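Re: folding output
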Amino acid sequence: MKKRNNYISWDEYFMGVALLSAQRSKDPSTQVGACIVSTHNKIVGAGYNGFPIGCDDDEFPWDKQGDLLETKYPYVCHAELNAILNNIGMDLSGCKIYTALFPCNECTKAIIQSGITEVIYLSDKYKGTDTDKAARKMLDKAGITYRRVKTNLPNLVLSFNEADV
């Protein structure tokens, strides 16, 4: 018997973990997940966009528009920052981060400071915005590579039906 040959790539696997992490987000409009991976292809951190620990998500706004303090923006921690903060306690130098959405300028600062050396993203939804331009400029100056994940998979289905195992 030969090994099966239709298994997913490392990029598909880790992006899948980022996308699965995004499903923990309670944000009604945008769910983003991130997964940090060591040079040995070990997951060392994961996160999703949500409020900080101790900030009840029923007591803070989820709105996208209005007075700043009445929107989610000053309160939500992005997936990339959460993945960095949730790491297993190791130095992240040389690690890669997989993220569903190209990182904003604020997350980019944290990515650079943490020592992560590569960003792999799925969506480039905000390409060309000022925050995107700032993020790319910082990544370029810091020598951090970034690329869109390459896959031929349109989707990946998970099943909790034990008959499917």
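--- second protein (sequence, then structure) ---
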Amino acid sequence: MSITALYILREKNIPVPDVSFSENDFLKWQCDMFNRTVGNLNERDGINCDKCLNRGYFNYLDEQTGDIFVRECECMKKRNSVISMQKSGLRNLLGKSFGSFNADEPWQDSAKQAAILYTQQKTERWLYMSGVHGCGKTHLCTAVCKALMNKGRNVKYLLWTDISRKLDALKFRYEDCEDYLSEIKNTDVLYIDDFLKNSDSSRDYSEVKKAYIIINARYCTDRKTIISSEIPLKDYYSADGAAAGRIREKSVTIPIQTDNSRDFRFRK
């Protein structure tokens, strides 16, 4: 008779044969019973795991000490990646990957391969990707961020226009502004999409000043930063050499396309 059967019979006060089992046997049974329970993590992230039955972890017994420990299931890496993506602000962009990027022309394939190479390098260098609207900057930068999240990095996605509006709204609320800047400064990986979008970087002093604050904050904390922009880095120097110099020092730069006829949205 198994230990499980014995325990169940004794729990129900049913007479059983005079069979004894050790404390370790009982603890093993407890672990086994727990490891058979079905969890519900799949309801939040859509991942089904046959190994842990969607609990996310196992109980196991250290027979030498008699202690029960918890071990994470392999599926938790995928689950944490999904949760990280959902929290990052990239939820609506998660369909954009390297596999779904159309590289029909040489310049597209070149940009794609450069982005893939960036994700394969063990480096904290930034990424500055520039090009005309609709050339695939956001798609490739999102794919880069997904690759980083799959490696366990925490990514935060922000549109430049949202950053700009937020800083304007907090202009006279010093503590709230400092909290917001602290969040931006200390985020593990920050992705700024459409950097300086819809502003004349050579004339709009307010936008240039805000951009310097953000770039300098990331520079000083040495945090990985991903930037997509319609402004080539060489053109940004005329607006703010200090910020552009910091980006240039830190970044792998990938200029994609400057020809407006290459806007794939327009061609579609």
